[in-house]
Amino acid sequence: MRAVARVAAYALATGLTSAPLPELLGAQESFPGPQTACELKQPNSKINNAIQALVAAVAKPDQRGPQLAQAKKLLTDAILQDNQGSNPAAWYYLGRQAVLVGDAAAADTTFSRAATLAPTCTADIATYREEVWGKLVNDGLSAWQDGKQDSALALLHVAARFEPRNPKALATVAALYASAANDDSAFAYYRLAARTAGDDAAFAHDRREALSNAWHLVVRKVQGHPAAQRAARVRASLDSIQRGITNDSTVLARLVASSQSRKAREAKLAPADQQLFTRDSTARAQAVARQRATLAAALQQLAADSSALTGAFAPAIDALKDYLSVFPGEIDAATTLATLLAQSGHAAQAAAVFDSVAAHAKDLDPDALFAPGARMVGQGLYRPAARALTLGLAKNPYRRDALFSLAVAYYQLHDSTALLPTAQRLLALDPLNRASLKLMAAGWDFMRQRDSTKAYVARADAGLAVEISVLSFLPDSAEGGATLSAAATNLKAAPSAPLRLTFEFLDVTGQVIATLTQDVPAMPPRQSQAFDLKVSGKRISGWRYRAS
To answer: The domain that contains 500 carries what CATH number?
Structure first.
C-alpha cells in the first residue's frame, strides 16, 4: 500500500492549472503524480481542479469526503460537458478517486478505459490496481478471521474478478476453505487458481503451489481408505497361503506317487499302516483344498477392493497426473501416484510412473528412489517397487539395502529371470549374511537348479559360523566420508574363531575410495560383537566386505 505523507502547504495555493500534469503533481508527496512514462497532456480546467480536490482530500482528512465527491463531479462533468471522454487523464484520475473511496468496480472500469487510451500508463495504473486488489484480499482475510465468512468470500471473489489473471485471490479462497475442512471446495478453487495462472511465468510459483495443494488435499481424503487397508492385509497373507499350498501339494503328490507305485507292484501296506496312510493323504488333500479356497477368496476380495479403490482414488490420481504433467520430475508426487495406482490394482501403470520421473529428472538422487521402493516392498506393492529400485540402482549399483529390497520384490513376483542375478550382486557385497544366502538359494530354486539350491540352504542354515549384519551406513555427501555400524554374531553353540574383515567403500562406478580392516575376536556361543567404522573420501556411496 502506498504511504501517504503530509502535503506541502504551498501546493494548494500555487496556480499550476496550465502546467503539464506530471509537473502539477510532482511536488505533492501525499498524492503522487503519474510515473514519468505515463504522459497525460492537454489538461482541462475541470480535470486540474479535480486533481487539486484529490490532493486536498489526502492532505486534509477532515475534508476528505467532500473533496472526493467534488473530484468525482468535476471529472464526470469534464467527460460529459467538455467532451473529455477521449482524454485519458479524466479516466485516470477517476480511477485514482475510486481507489481513495474504495470503489473496486469503478476503479476497474475507469483504469481499464485509461489504459486503453494511454498504453504508456499501463505500468503506473497497475500499481494502483494492485493497491485495490491487495486491500480486497486483506479485508477478506480480516473478515474471515472475524468469523464473517460470507463477507470474506465475497471480497475475495471481487478481488479475483478485479485481477482475473492473478490466481492469488482464488488460492486464498481455497486455503480458507481448506482451513475450514471443506476439502471439496478447496480442491475446486486450487484447480481454478492453477488454470488462472496458466503458463504466465510471473505466476509459475502460484501454479505449482495450487496444483500441489490440490493433490495433497484429495490424497489426504483417501488415505486410510478401508479397502486399501484390507487389500494390504490380503496381499500380506498371499505369500504364506501360496507357500502352504505348495508344501502340502508336494507332500500330497509324493503320497499319491507312493500309492500308485504300490499298486503297480501289487504291494500292500499292513492294515495299520494303510489306515495311517489314508488318514494322512486325506488330511493333506483337505488342507490343499481349504488353502486353495482361501486363496480364491483372497484373490476375489483383492479384486473387489482394487475395483472400489479405482473409483475412490480417481480424483486424487487425476490431480497427481495434472501436477506431474507440468512438473514431471517431482518424486514425491510420482511416488504418491504410483502408490495409489498400485493399491487400486494398476501395477504396470504404477511402475511406468517411475520411468517417467527418472526420464525427466536426470539429476535425481538415487536415494529418492530407494526410499519409496523399499517402502512399497513393505506394503506388498512389488512391481512398482522393483521398478523404482532398479532405476535407483542404475545410478548407484552398490547400495546393499536397495539390492536386498529388490531381491525380495523379485522373489515375491516369482521372477525367475531377475532374482538370481540380483541375489548374486547382493552376495558380492554382503557374503556373510543369512538373508543374502537364502535369496541366493531362492534364485537357484527358481532356476530349478536343485544342487545349488541345497548348497545355499545348507550354508544359510548350518554352514555359516559368524554372521555379519550391517546395521547402518551413512555417507556424508557434504563433508565426504562415511560411517558404518555393524555387528558380528556367533551362530554356533561353540566359541567362534577370530575373523578379519576387509571393508571397501565405493563410489557409484565401483571405484574403491577407502579401505578398512576390522578384526572380530573369538566370541562365546550365540553372542555378538558390535563395531563402527568411519572413513574419509569423496563420493562414497556404497560398501562391500570380504573375510580374510
So the answer is: 2.60.40
